[in-house]
Amino acid sequence: MAQSPQRSRLKQFVHANFSPAPLYPLKGIWYFTSHRYLWPLLQGRLLPLTLLSTAVLVILFLTAYLPLVAFLALFHVTKGSAWVNATFFILGVGNLLIALLFEALFVDNTQVDIFDAVVVAEGYEHLVKTRRPVSDDINESDPVKRLGAREKGAKFAPFSFRQIIEFIFLLPLNFVPFV
């Protein structure tokens, strides 16, 4: 049975314009909570990140939010759009500051270890073995314990050129008026 052209166009529109990407953070949280071997890797990082994020956002909202709303209200005709844009701008700046501070102060090679542990846990040891030794002990249920010391490559680069350019170019998008 053939689909009507209208239904086919609707399917194409939905497929082209809607992505499952917003679900990925939720899937990541679910994966983290359901795989206990990841807990020790992030245990020492979650509390400092939570405190840092809370402090940065509170300070930004207390000091910069209202002046930014006043400035944006000069250029926004729509009632309320200055409040919305200022909120997203402050959250974007907060994201920038949190990322810079967290990567400068707290992050080491934990991201590389987490990635390698997940790849080993999913059964793709051969991909990790090119960069670090992996134990062949299949009785070991903890993939983190199967990982050896890193021999080469996979260095964490917290202030990469790509990341800096991304922050610089994407931050001004918050000045586009919300209609």
UniProtKB/TrEMBL annotation:
InterPro entries: Spore_wall_assembly (IPR052786). The chain crosses the membrane at residues 46-76, 82-102. GO terms for cellular component: ascospore wall; lipid droplet; prospore membrane. This is Uncharacterized protein. Keywords: Membrane, Transmembrane, Transmembrane helix.
